[in-house]
Design a protein that fits this description.
Elements: H1 3-9, H2 15-24, H3 37-44, E1 83-86, E2 107-112, H4 122-135, E3 143-147, H5 152-164, E4 176-182, E5 185-190, E6 195-199, H6 213-224, E7 233-242, E8 248-256, H7 261-270, E9 271-275, E10 286-292, E11 298-303, H8 307-316, E12 320-321, E13 333-340, E14 347-348, E15 350-358, E16 370-378
């Protein structure tokens, strides 16, 4: 039993955190990529473990450049299988896919998550709620504040019990919420700074045309432009997964328009307005998440590896995944994205997210679809990490 399941068993995780986590768990992929990757890996061979990819020294908390070593990534979020079923890999839309040979910077920024392993700051959460509420013209009302973190003495005993069993202490035990209900609008602020807004049916208009992902996205962008809180927003349609009824589903993310893949990775991961559910009819209620994660504590600009180097690490088992079954080969990879994993990590650092065609164990597949599973490899050079993730065959 991992820390997430242990906390569930003792009743210290509430629905509020699950709702917050649900806003983060999106499924994305894209067109085929790395057609010659398998050949490359054979050539790369032992050369991949050059200085930039070797294990970091355990005796120091800082790298040679004076940058703090980054803590181990969360490998088990308890959030289930991250994958999609699509008609073909070409039909699936990515959040931030890279093209083969695309130029990337030498470094990317890394930020500390200021809310990690700390009690919820209800004052800051309420301020964030009112910031989003003001975008909808709501400036007053009665908020309900809740701190679900156990009292200090009880919390100390829980943490001690978890550590004695050899599990890491989870940030998921430190939770709270701030809520505001108004006529037709409900606001919910989570510890991470994310705010969920639920709107009654008919609040948004999509225009007279039948539902179509791109046209609807642009219509929503026009109708919501003054409620996004972004200076120069762009609409990004993601998804294409096929549900059990044969419907093709999409999501939409609004983010600051960026010119480079690295900048897009940061904005589309850490500062977005996104539909947790992309409505197809105006009669449906609408849920929108305002995810603006705190980037005020920058740790520095860290050297990053290339996608091909990350692919070699994936095949070596240095990855994070929730896909049940054996690791994919380079031939199975269909797309790679550059993203940040948030909000459930101690630091916000970039990752390569590989989507591979898989046949997950224990999951029945539909006929006429392919399953794509997500695999994360740290983009930061391993000499700046306390340790590389190691896949051990365990899935949550």
């Amino acid at each position: 039993m991992n820390a997430w399941r242990l906390l569930r068993a003792i009743g210290e995780i509430d629905d509020a955190f699950i709702e917050q986590a649900e806003s983060y768990r999106r499924r994305r992929t894209a067109v085929p990529w790395l057609a010659a990757a398998a050949c490359f890996v054979l050539v790369l061979g032992a050369a991949v473990w050059r200085a930039g990819l070797s294990a970091p020294p355990a005796s120091s908390s800082e790298s040679a450049l004076g940058l703090p070593l980054l803590p181990s990534a969360v490998t088990d979020t308890g959030m289930g299988f991250e994958g999609v079923e699509v008609r073909s890999a070409e039909d699936y839309r990515p959040l931030n896919a890279l093209e083969d040979g695309q130029e990337l910077p030498d470094t990317m920024p890394v930020y500390r998550n200021p809310s990690w392993l700390s009690r919820p700051d209800l004052d800051a959460m309420e301020a964030r709620l009112w910031e989003v509420a003001a975008l909808f013209g709501v400036t007053e009302g009665e908020v309900v504040r809740t701190d679900n973190t156990p009292p200090d003495e009880e919390l100390e005993q829980i943490i001690k019990g978890i550590e004695e069993k050899g599990f890491p202490v989870s940030d998921q035990m430190f939770s709270g919420s701030v809520k505001l209900e108004t006529d037709g609008l409900n606001f919910y602020a989570a510890k991470s700074g994310a705010v969920r807004v639920t709107m009654k049916p008919g609040t948004l208009t999509y225009g007279d045309a039948p539902f179509a992902p791109d046209e609807t996205a642009q219509s929503l962008l026009a109708s919501m432009s003054d409620r996004l809180g972004l200076q120069d927003p762009e609409a990004v349609v993601t998804g294409g997964n096929v549900d059990r009824d044969g419907n093709v589903n999409y999501e939409i993310v609004f983010a600051e328009r960026s010119e480079t893949a690295a900048a897009r990775a940061e904005e589309r991961s850490l500062n977005t307005v996104g539909f947790g559910y992309f409505p197809k009819e105006e009669s449906e209620s609408v849920t929108v998440w305002y995810n603006a994660y705190d980037r005020s504590e920058k740790l520095g600009d860290y050297p990053i590896i290339t996608p091909d180097e990350a692919l070699a690490l994936l095949e070596n088992g240095n990855c994070i995944t929730t896909v049940p079954g054996s690791l994919p080969s380079a031939d199975d990879v269909r797309v790679v994205e550059l993203v940040y994993r948030a909000p459930n990590e101690e630091v916000y650092q970039p990752y390569y997210r590989f989507w591979a065609e898989v046949k997950p164990e224990g999951i029945a597949q539909q006929e006429g679809v392919v399953t794509l599973g997500a695999y994360y490899v740290p983009a930061v050079e391993s000499q700046y990490l306390e340790e590389l993730p190691v896949w051990d065959g365990h899935f949550n």
